[in-house]
Design brief:
Strand order of the largest sheet: 3-2-1-4-5-6
CATH superfamily: YqgF/RNase H-like domain
Radius of gyration: 14 Å
Strand content: 15-25%
Number of strands: 6
Oligomer: single chain
Number of domains: 1
Order of helices and strands: EEEHEHEHHE
Distance between the termini: 33 Å
Number of helices: 4
CATH topology: Nucleotidyltransferase, domain 5
Structural class: alpha/beta
Shape: globular
Helix content: 25-40%
CATH class: Alpha Beta
């Protein structure tokens, strides 16, 4: 298992959930919810710098069948923007059902999902990042696919 803090990201149309791991890559915890739009990449990169992150993990929203979903292209474009702007490696990891799992976990804890939308995004980011950490620990190789920066940006 590689050492170093990883930043996990759940990209949504309105909000972006952020999570962070510890230096040993054992546990993901919620960090913040960032409004989607102007300056979002800069906020995320600032957060990565403050935490001395070594890598950014972005959730790849595939359909249950493993095919691209309506949100897949948007997440890929966002990850490409991050990769083009950052000196850190950016990886995309399958995030099927992370938001559904996050919503169910919050409902099970008694939270109203309508008033907890920002928290849902953070919990989804935690689920994405924890999944990536667990995959790396079990397989012994970094998870997902490295995003190559789009030089045209």
């Amino acid at each position: 298992m590689r050492r170093g803090v990883r930043l996990g990201i759940d990209v949504g149309k309105v909000r972006i959930g952020l999570a962070s791991s510890d230096r040993d890559g054992l546990l993901a915890t919620p960090v913040a919810t960032v409004p989607r739009g102007s300056g979002d990449v800069e906020v995320i990169l600032r957060e990565a710098g403050e935490r001395s992150a070594t890598e950014i993990i972005v959730g790849l929203p595939l359909s249950l069948s493993g095919q691209d979903s309506a949100s897949t292209g948007d997440a890929r474009e966002f990850a490409s923007r991050l990769a083009a702007t950052s000196n850190l490696p950016v990886r995309m990891v399958d995030e099927r059902l992370s938001t559904v799992s996050a919503t169910r976990a919050l409902q099970a804890s008694g939270r109203n999902s309508k008033r907890s939308r920002a928290v849902v995004d953070q919990v989804a980011a935690v689920i994405i990042l924890q999944h990536a950490l667990d995959l790396e620990r079990s397989r012994g190789i970094p998870p997902g696919v490295v995003v190559e920066p789009d030089e045209r940006r």
